[in-house]
Amino acid sequence: MNLLKSFRLDGKTALVTGSATGIGASIAMGLAQAGAAVACHGNRRAATETAEAIGAQAAAFQADLSSTEGAQQLFAEVVAKFGHVDILINNAGMILRDVAENFSLEAWQEVLQVNLTSVFQLSQLAGRDMIRRNAPGKIVNIASLLSFQGGIRVPAYAASKGGVAQLTKALANEWAGRNIQVNAIAPGYIATTNTEPLQADETRNRQILERIPAGRWGQPEEIAGAALFLASPASNYVTGHVLVVDGGWMGR
Fold it and tell me: Of 23, 44, 20, 17, which Cα lies nearest the Cα of 192?
């Protein structure tokens, strides 16, 4: 096997949710650089800037994953454009902060829908189609350090990301024999819009940096390499794994 060629994605189509900005945009551009055609999704608006940055091999889509109908709409539109999906990156996510005793049921349900239920919906749609076509496939879910830890003032987010880790393992168990690998990436503290409140909080920012052995926040593009590995033939014998990319946080 040519090792370098095993990281190529020529002829593959990838759907990257939440790829208008941040981690998702970096992953979409990384997969495109490896040769994939990329469906770039935005939750509130189409991921037009990301698609335009990639070029002719990409297209922009918009679907509201906080609605139970959003996943079905998105997958149908992507298949209508590209014919099929070989690689699914479930990156779209949201976080709402409040103390647990005041956290509303409406906020809880919205976070769980976007971060966990839509991940299952899209994985089911993609997996079902891969099985129907008897085609190999890759599903990569974006988990979190809070897949392992409880966090503070983010009960719904922690619950959803714990669920993403377990869903990843459950789907991997069922689909490994179908040549569909399901894995997850658990990013550490990455400088994105989701973490702006923590970066702006002088005390929390200092506490976070003091614990990270690397001594800095991660950058969105530093997740793209892990995503490329898990989306490529180089990882064909890796499934059910949650890959932590955190500057050493979990090892401390």
Answer: 23
10: left (phi over 0), alpha (psi -120 to 50) or beta: beta
Average pLDDT of the chain, as a whole number = 97
In a domain, 252, yes or no: no
- In sequence order, which ranges of the chain are alpha helices (DSSP H)? 22-33, 48-54, 70-82, 105-112, 118-133, 155-175, 196-200, 202-211, 221-231
Please indicate whether residue 157 is annotated as part of the active site: yes
Retrieve residue 75's tokens.
Answer: 């997958």
Domain residues for the domain of 212 are 5-246
138-149 pLDDT tens trace: 999 999 999 999
Determine, yes or no, domain membership for 251.
no
Number of other residues whose CB lies within 10 A of the CB of residue 234: 17
Record the pTM.
0.97
What is the tally of helices (H) and strands (E) in the chain?
9, 7
Contact (Cβ atoms closer than 8 angstroms) between residue 81 and residue 39? yes
Q: Which residue has the tokens 């949201």?
A: 94
Per the residue annotation, which of 41, 142, 146, 157 is the catalytic one? 157
- Work out how many domains the chain is built from and give that number: 1
CATH (domain of 110): 3.40.50.720
CA distance 215 to 249: 10
